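comment on this one:
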Amino acid sequence: MSTENEGSGTEGAGTEGQQVPPSVPPAPSVPPAPVDPARGGPQQSAPAGDWPPPPPQGAPSPYAEPPATPAYAGGGSYATPGGGPAWGASYQQPAPAKGRRGGLVAAVLAAALIAGGVGGGIGYWAASDGDGSGSTTVSASDTPTSVKREAGSVAGVAAKALPSVVTIDAQGGDGEGGTGTGFVYDKQGHILTNNHVVASAADGGNLTATFSNGKKYVAEVVGRAEGYDVAVLKLRNSDGPAPLPLGNSDKVAVGDSTIAIGAPFGLSNTVTTGIISAKNRPVASSDGGNSKSSYMSALQTDASINPGNSGGPLLDSGGAVIGINSAIQSAGNGMGGSGQAGSVGLGFAIPINQAKNVAEQLIKTGKPVYPVIGASVSLEDNRMGATISDEGPGGSAAVSPNGPAAKAGLKSGDVITKLDDTIIDSGPTLIGEIWTHKPGDTVKITYERGGKTETVDVTLGDRVGDD
């Protein structure tokens, strides 16, 4: 994966050649963590709900364009030569390079040493100044030895959830890899995470999962769904802790409290909080390994999510999983174009209702099943709807003969503006909404043709696998 700059800074007592009075201890400098700007990806047309979509072409879209080239320095966002903002994916943090291991940890330790030095000096001065008669120290002799926290508090939710969250280390056969997060999904010990977390090690690599108590297990891939960006793992020789309870993402409301758990920049068992900022946010992302992209109608949260949080649970205030943290929108200040982008309060999670359907299919068959309408749509962001293309991938028909769309009477040039009660403003929005359903579901599609608005019922078909 690409370069990692966490440990690229230097530590020292001052600038070379600068005189430092011997009575004044030098202050170590802590380099700022570099970040990387997110950039937009090109657009083209893709089958609405079909898989795989071709690499997009055209102007960048802030809605949902598949980024093309990953910046795997923690993966925060993706960069393409085209430039511009995009819904970038928060991918796994790369394994530390030899000779630079623990750069971020080193910076944290340096900061701790500075604080310790200042605190120690002040403590000595206070103890040696006078006989203590003027002390302002207040004792709390009646403080209980342990603090009891409410079960519904953030601390209470975190204490209960952390034992069921794992930090995933994925190492590919080519030496590339990274860190992500997962959580115990069921009583059989399956682990739910993102596909992009494990993709580098899925074929011939090494996967391990480490619990908060330090126990580490070898993990195997049960199944992966690239389009949904969901993967299921199974741990060897582990009975594991209890699974996390699953909530109902359809019932989530904007403003609800959220708690995210993960391993941002490799810092395992990190807990952050926020709210649901928006629902049904169309997001497209890619693991950079091929032209395929994942589409989701995401939950947006301002809980701090960074590279390494991918695959971790997004919890509600009661501790139930409502989503899988998967992507961030970054606006980093690039340093040489190779830094890691971090949270700006725009995180995106796969709704757990959708992830649950995918997980059950993967556990049952090992392969994903995608609902489709049998029509290719443009990925260009015209904010007017999803336009059925003139032709499909490789010159195929844009509307598959005898497919769901054809049976409903849809044609090339039709502009789909609504799916049930959801407004469709782009091709990626349509794909993301279709993928919240199951094959066989009947949806109501509103479209425009020749200045007239029509509505038809479409029974979704299916496509098995990512090939």
Notes: The helical segments are 103-128, 154-161, 195-198, 352-365, 404-407, 427-434. Residues 1-45, 50-133, 333-338 have pLDDT under 50 and may be disordered.
